[in-house]
Write a structure and sequence with these properties.
165 residues, mainly alpha, 3-stranded antiparallel sheet, 3 strands
């Protein structure tokens, strides 16, 4: 008598009846599904402040850069998700008074983005709520499991960056 393979938690969650094509597919989809759930929580938090996730990401990057700011293209390269429309993103944040742009002294062609006091204030109000979302995203894991997850995700990202897809 043949025993049926049990459905994985991911299969149940997404309502998939057939087995995944491979263990690799299930693992990849698990990462994507988890990232989607975490993204939704963060989007809900920043959306309450009239921001999108990419805008929030820009403000976080600029806060980390300090008073000297960063060139626009450097901001783009540090973003979590690719942002082909970085100029449009920066324009909206500047119009909202959350950052300012300055011309670089040595190279007038280069534009430096600097977070404003208003931008810092918005982040200060968002931070505790993001902290709650971060904790919710890892609530079922021990500290050691969180460290293991970080190490494994680092390994996955490093492997992907080495593959030319």
């Amino acid at each position: 008598m043949r025993t049926a393979k049990r459905q994985s938690a991911l299969q149940k969650e997404i309502g998939q009846r057939r087995p995944f094509q491979s263990l690799e597919q299930e693992a990849s989809l698990g990462v994507v599904r988890t990232a989607s759930l975490v993204r939704r929580a963060i989007t809900k938090v920043v959306g309450a402040f009239g921001l999108t996730q990419p805008q929030y990401n820009v403000l976080r990057i600029l806060r980390g850069a300090g008073k000297n700011g960063l060139p626009t293209l450097e901001v783009r390269s540090r973003m979590i998700d690719e942002a082909p429309g970085i100029t449009r993103l920066v324009n909206k944040l500047e119009r909202a008074g959350l950052l300012r742009r300055e011309r670089s002294t040595p190279d007038r062609r280069q534009v430096i983005c600097v977070i404003s006091a208003k931008g810092l204030d918005v982040l200060a109000r968002i931070d505790p709520l993001i902290g709650v979302a971060d904790k919710a995203g890892t609530a079922g894991l021990t500290v050691q499991e969180q460290r293991t997850m970080i190490r494994l995700l680092d390994k996955v990202r490093n492997s992907i960056s080495e593959i030319d897809l």
